[in-house]
Amino acid sequence: TSLAEVNSFSPSVPISPSSMINQYKFEDGPELRDLFITVDDPESHITAIETFITYRVVTKTTRGEFDSSEYEVRRRYQDFLWLKSRLEEAHPTLIIPPLPEKFIMKGMVERFSDEFIETRRKALHKFLNRIADHPTLTFNEDFKIFLTAQAWELSSHKKQGPGLLSRMGQTVRAVASSVRGAVKNRPEMFTEMNNYMETFSQKINLLDKIAHRIYKEERDYFNEMKEYGPIHTLWSASEEDIADSLKGIASCIDRCCKATERRMAGLSEHLLPILHEYVLYSEILAGVLKRRDQIQGELDSKVDALANKKTEKDLVSEEIGKLEDKVERANNALKADWDRWKQNMQWDMRSSFTNVAENNLRYYEECLATWESFLASQSVDLHVEEDAEERP
Amino acid sequence: MEDCLAKKMEITVSEAEKRTGRNAMNIQETYTAYLIETRAVESQSEGQCVPMDSLWRRYSEFELLRNYLSVTYPHIVVPPLPEKRADFVWHKLSADNMDPDFVERRRIGLENFLLRVASHPVLCQDKIFYAFLTQEGGWKEMVNETGFQLKADSRLKALNATFRVKNPDKRFTELKHYSDELQSVISHLLRVRARVADRLYGVYKVHGNYGRVFSEWSAIEKEMGDGLQSAGHHMDVYAASIDDILEEEEHYADQLKEYLFYAEALRAVCRKHELMQYDLEMAAQDLTSKKQQCEELATGTVRTFSLKGMTSKLFGQETPEQREAKIKVLEEQIQEGEEQLKAKNLEGRDFVKSAWADIERFKEQKNHDLKEALISYAVMQISMCKKGIQVWTNAKECFSKM
């Protein structure tokens, strides 16, 4: 047996298909969904060389292309990274969903803390489901292999892909061509997209910071409130007449305190992950626009070469023809995906912020009920007192 | 209660004004003067609009008045003044005595002080208090002429009594413990309240940032733009609402502070009792020792060791005439002492009786006021919740239209 120690330290969180439907918007409606994926059950593996975590990926499907209707595999973060880069290669101008980051700089979250792992698990779950929802990416072959292959099968498949060197070559070419005025021939539509992306990126980053700040302020408020209630209880011990009122106040404050805790939890469960995802998305958009520019740049440089009569006219014309097709395909793919992305973004923002409003409403309604019932209890006493005073 | 001044006279501290002047050391200083306005209640019922009499006083004059009352009526729980310097501040309030919000709250506190004195059955009848309200010039001299400063007990004397008294009235001992607990718990509460207020301020104000960013974001969105923009507006409203909410809470804090300072007034009455009791115990002890001395001289027996006894043994005893003289002096002193002791006992019993009557009155007032304050706190929370519900209902509608 291997040196790996398997130790599962958090109970798997079963996610029902119905809850998934609530989380994601489907362009074609939930009835047409034929691929259900869950990511759960993080397990830590300790070897001589490294420690890493695997997640269980369960797939249920009715699709014919799949040999079985149910699959269960274990994947580590590296595997997700591989999948993402394969999708980017295959579809350079499609908006590939974001992966959670490798490390988290801010905050004091340790690499293998429960909180970090849970956040990552949810993000990975989201990642796969977004791919499953995508009209093109859902049929990607590497995606299928990712979902279905056993560990050794995946390893060997990974080795078959374009080598590191060729990928590096692409990167070099990409950088080179982006330096060469790919911007000058850019269609108006994509310049508009670029402008949009820049502003969106700025705003979403700000919103992410604001939301985190609000969470922090709410947490600090919660910590002070925890101390506030008990003082009233302490005071009630030295009093007689007002002891009940003081205890009443103490209990109200404690209940409001718990309500604050729930409000914070709501924020961290819904808004914060979404905003973070869209911060990553804004980087992805920038990348997608760049790659489109690069593809156009290839065409433009060939066209320039033709103009300078540096090479054989016929050969170059044929290449130009191919590149023109490539550019057109890339532009169309991007345009369609951009529209789709915007719709999803609108839906996600609407639902997340509405959820924030609902959380706050629930919080204030709870607190209101608490204080009103306290007041009602005091009024009863007041009436009794008033009657007593009126008696001679 | 029908006799108290508050029913016969309208009293307000209506204005506060910054002044500069030269103080006792001829140094230029800035201070705040407060306008006290008074008017007899009966004059109003005639349907005419009678103008109010008014005069200006500064905080130090209020302090002088209160010191006078504390010394002159040691058996009364004298109402406290509002704080001299801003304490229990949270970050927004400045600790500056010249800050307009602090001055305003102090004005209200001073008015409250005058009304409390005017509604006290004993204190309201004091001539110096009446003059404070109605006589602008020469009031300070009038107070000093009462010679009240001479009657004041020294701090050191009081401390000494506290440690050495043997049989204080148990009720006063309990009262002292209560006032210590009250002071401690209210201080703690006010400190934490200030921190809670600070945090709450932070939560509300950060939401204001949403407003700005939503507005900027809405510029690039076609369909989401309107929803974002209007939601942003509601976030601004939400952020702004905390200022009024916390301003109101300051008044609640002031109500608690009054009773924090009242605890000190309670302790002062207890201290006075301890002093009187200690005085009594000392006088009784002195009388007993004198009686003993007398007896020893009369019978010639020395029961206790004394230097005189030793010296007389060593150097010979006194003559019978000397002894007679001594006995006579002692007998006079003993008689004086017995009369004084009787008077002190009476004084002490009267003090306990009238002090305890005022303490009962105070307890009822305290229970009533604090209960009202706690209820007003609940009312404030309810108002805050309702405002929150309104803002977030509006915001939710805007978000759902995005």
From TrEMBL, chain A:
Q: Which GO terms describe its biological process?
A: autophagy of mitochondrion; endocytic recycling; piecemeal microautophagy of the nucleus; protein transport; reticulophagy
Against InterPro entries, the record matches this protein to:
AH/BAR_dom_sf, BAR_SNX7, PX_dom, PX_dom_sf, PX_SNX7
Q: Which residues form a coiled coil?
A: 306-333
Q: Does the keyword Protein transport apply?
A: yes
Q: What is this protein called?
A: SNX7 protein
Family assignment from sequence similarity: Belongs to the sorting nexin family.
List residues of the PX domain. 33-154
| UniProt GO cellular component terms | early endosome; phagophore assembly site
Show the GO MF annotations: phosphatidylinositol binding
Domain of life, per UniProt, equals Eukaryota
Which keywords does this Swiss-Prot/TrEMBL entry list? Coiled coil, Protein transport, Transport
TrEMBL record, chain B:
User: Domain of life here?
Assistant: Eukaryota
Question: What InterPro entries does this protein map onto?
Answer: AH/BAR_dom_sf (IPR027267), PX_dom (IPR001683), PX_dom_sf (IPR036871), PX_SNX4 (IPR034902), SNX4 (IPR034783), SNX4_BAR (IPR037430)
Q: Which GO terms describe its molecular function?
A: phosphatidylinositol-3-phosphate binding
PROSITE patterns (alphabetical): PX
Signal peptide (from-to): none
Q: Which keywords accompany this UniProt record?
A: Protein transport, Transport
Sorted alphabetically, which SUPFAM superfamilies does this protein's record hold? PX domain
All copies of the PX domain together span 12-139
Among Pfam families, the record links this protein to: PX (PF00787)
One GO biological process term is: positive regulation of autophagosome assembly
Q: Does the keyword Cell membrane apply?
A: no
Give an example GO cellular component term for this record: plasma membrane
Q: Which family does it belong to?
A: Belongs to the sorting nexin family.
Protein name per Swiss-Prot or TrEMBL: SNX4 protein
